[in-house]
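Lab notebook, design round three. We kept the backbone fixed and only want residue identities now. Task for the bench partner: fill in a sequence for the structure below.
Input structure tokens:
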């Protein structure tokens, strides 16, 4: 390789690195991150800074994911009202995991995503009565202080992650053998109105 060719190759390499750096600072991903979907550190080794995705875009993405179905079908979720332009109220379903007292049971939950979601976690409440260490037996609310995912919430977490984590919690040593209410004992208490009212106009 001649000196002139080496100079050209070196110029191209510098330009390529500069291009990656520009992508890093003006967008969510560097080139390799964009391909690999790695959010923070790409294969290129450059730390990528997350771009904040608007709430409505995020909610539409989760809605699409819920409509497509999740894994083996033992966890699902969807909007309560298709006309709800703020996408606040959602219903989730968990089919109890095998080899636990929850096996075969169908649990319904309400998830409320207010204007601060996904920066802050949704409010999660079991409609179906269940005995779990992280669930308030009087209200059916999942207690954030007793459920690590809500206690240590991160913006990239989703409603799907919450439901999957709750299903996993059902299989934990402290919950897998707990005595449960009779099947079909759905909670008929009035839902807390203030939870729905927390969803303000964006």
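Proposed sequence:
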């Amino acid at each position: 390789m001649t000196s002139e060719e080496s100079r050209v190759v070196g110029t191209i390499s510098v330009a390529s690195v500069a291009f990656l750096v520009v992508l890093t600072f003006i967008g969510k991903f560097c080139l390799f991150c964009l391909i690999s979907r790695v959010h923070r550190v790409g294969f290129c080794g450059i730390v990528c800074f997350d771009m904040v995705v608007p709430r409505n875009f995020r909610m539409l993405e989760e809605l699409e994911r819920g409509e497509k179905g999740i894994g083996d079908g033992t966890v699902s979720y969807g909007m309560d009202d298709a006309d709800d332009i703020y996408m606040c109220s959602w219903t989730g379903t968990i089919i109890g995991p095998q080899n636990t007292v929850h096996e075969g049971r169908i649990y319904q939950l309400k998830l409320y995503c207010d204007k601060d979601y996904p920066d802050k976690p949704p409010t999660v409440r079991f409609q179906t009565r269940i005995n779990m260490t992280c669930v308030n037996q009087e209200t059916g609310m999942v207690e954030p202080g007793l459920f690590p995912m809500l206690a240590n919430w991160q913006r990239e977490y989703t409603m799907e992650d919450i439901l999957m984590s709750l299903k996993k919690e059902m299989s934990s040593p402290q919950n897998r053998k707990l005595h449960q209410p009779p099947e079909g004992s759905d909670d008929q208490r009035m839902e807390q109105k203030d939870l729905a009212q927390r969803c303000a106009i964006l």
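Keep this in mind before ordering anything: Confidence is low (pLDDT under 50) at residues 19-44, 189-197.
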